[in-house]
Amino acid sequence: MNTMNRREWALVITLTLAAVLMICAVPPPEIGGAPLPEVRAGTAAIVTPTLQVPLPPTPIPPTAPPTATRLPPTATPTIAATATPSATPTAPPSPTVTPYPFDTRPDLARYMYIDQRSQHIYLFEYGELLRAIPCSTGKPDDNSYTPAASGKVGVYVTTFFSFGTHQDDAWYLYHSVGGIYIHGLPYTYDEAGAKVYQDRDALGVRPTSHGCIRIAPEDAVWLREWNPADIPFTVSEPYLELWR
Q1: Which residues touch 176 (CB under 8 Å, ≥6 apart)?
Q2: Do the Cβ atoms of 189 and 211 come closer than 8 Å?
Q3: How many CA atoms lie within 13 Å of 112's alpha carbon, on the beta-carbon side?
Q4: Could you report the per-residue pLDDT of 212-222, keeping only the tens digit for each?
Q5: Considering the domain 111-243 in this protein, what is its CATH number?
Q6: Rounded to an integer, what distance in angstroms lies between the CA atom of residue 88 and that of residue 104?
Q7: Which of 17-26, 33-42, 125-134 comes out lowest in average pLDDT?
Q8: How many Å apart are CA 210 and CA 140, to the nearest integer?
Q9: Over 80: is that where the pLDDT of 197 sits?
Q10: What is the reported pLDDT for 50?
């Protein structure tokens, strides 16, 4: 290899400097919109440009739809009706009509009322009806009707005989022409010894007795078990004109 002389070295250095100056004079190209880094003169290092590629937009996660808040139902206000004054005065309320045309004596623990108009015995406990028993009082004749009275129920008589008939389960009430009793229907005996009761069809319908108050034999048994001894009683007027 031939050794280079000074002239040849000077030419190489001059060409090298010219090349460097030309590179520095040309503006660097932009890649992807970003300029390449500047190369300073006199440096031999070659910088490799970094490409800046735009990244795709980050997806935004979908948001959950807002949850509807359930409000409690609102009560509908009640509008009170305003009374319109009437030009005419209002009639007072009618008095309460009781089902009985007599006092049921709610002040008494037990009470008996014999109504000769309806031909019934009404038994009350503190004014409340316990039992209504169909009966038949004295015929509307001068010597056999049942007079009005009040008092307390007297003694009990198992059986007595009067006017050719027998009567069972009798309770003494008061004295009129004779003794006035509540008792079972009068009866006689047939040939077989059985009781034959009289005037059952008159109970609760019409008066047929000689003054006593007749009731059905089964009601007489019930009354005996209820035991009306010493309870207050009232016998209404006989309503003679009605039954005559």
Answers
A1: 146, 147, 149, 211
A2: no
A3: 24
A4: 999 999 999 99
A5: 2.40.440.10
A6: 38
A7: 33-42
A8: 9
A9: yes
A10: 46
Spatial CA neighbour of 147 closest among 208, 238, 210:
238
Q: Provide the pLDDT for residue 7.
A: 74
Assigned token pair, 58? 């980050």
| Structural contact between residues 210 and 138, judged by C-beta atoms closer than 8 angstroms | yes
Q: Please report which residue ranges of the chain form alpha helices under DSSP H.
A: 6-25, 217-226, 240-243
Which pair of tokens denotes residue 123?
């038994």
Q: How far apart are CA 240 and CA 143, in angstroms?
A: 12
Query: Is 182 or 72 the better-scoring residue by pLDDT?
Result: 182
- Model confidence over 93-109: pLDDT tens digits? 444 445 789 999 999 99
Beta carbons within 8 Å of 29's beta carbon, 6+ residues apart: 36
Is the pLDDT at 23 greater than 70, yes or no?
no
Give the helix, strand, coil percentages of the chain, each rounded to 5: 15, 25, 60
Contact 62, 74 (CB under 8 A): no
Q: What is the DSSP letter of 150?
A: E
Task: Give CA–CA dist 160/182, Å, rounded.
Answer: 12
In which residue are the tokens 């229907």 written? 185
User: Are 173 and 233 within 8 A, CB to CB?
Assistant: yes
pLDDT > 50? residue 34? no
Smallest Cα–Cα separation from 144: which of 213, 82, 193?
A: 213
Closest listed residue to residue 121, CA positions, set 231, 199, 213, 218: 213
Find where tokens 């300029």 sit. 35
Q: Give the Cα separation of 129 and 131 in Å (integer).
A: 6
